């Protein structure tokens, strides 16, 4: 969890350097969420399917756990 938290804050810093910020996350319905991003040029609203987000997060966590497991076994 410590590594994941560190990765999260590093990505957040990287976005801040590019002047990109998550303004708000809006629950649309049980299937979709909207994310409002502030960018240097304009605000952008993106719609995401919740199941697709869940699947992507699961893939990233599994990948991270594999890498961590391999490092610990070296």
Beta fraction = 25-35%
What is the average per-residue confidence, as pLDDT, rounded to a whole number?
88
Order of helices and strands: HEEEH
Q: Main β-sheet, in a few words?
A: 3 strands, antiparallel
Q: Order of strands side by side in the largest beta sheet?
A: 1-2-3
Question: How many β strands by DSSP?
Answer: 3
Describe the 3D structure.
This protein has helices spanning about 1-15, 50-70, and strands at about 20-25, 30-40, 45-50. With about 70 residues, the protein is an alpha+beta fold. The chain has a three-stranded antiparallel sheet with strand order 1-2-3. The longest helix is centred in the last third of the chain and has 23 residues, at about 50-70. The model has no long low-confidence stretch (mean pLDDT about 90).
Topology overview:
Elements lengths: L1 H16 L3 E7 L4 E7 L4 E7 H23 L2
Antiparallel strand pairs: 1-2, 2-3
Short précis:
It is built from two helices and three strands; from the N terminus they run αβββα.
Please supply descriptive tags for the structure shown above.
2 helices, alpha+beta, three-stranded antiparallel beta sheet, single chain, 3 strands, 74 residues
């Amino acid at each position: 969890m410590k590594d994941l938290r560190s990765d999260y804050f590093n990505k957040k810093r990287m976005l801040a350097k590019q002047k990109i910020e998550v303004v708000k996350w809006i629950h649309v319905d049980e299937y979709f969420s909207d994310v409002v991003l502030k960018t240097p040029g304009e605000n952008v609203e993106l719609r995401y399917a919740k199941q697709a987000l869940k699947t992507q997060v699961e893939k990233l966590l599994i990948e991270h756990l594999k890498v961590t497991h391999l490092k610990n076994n070296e």
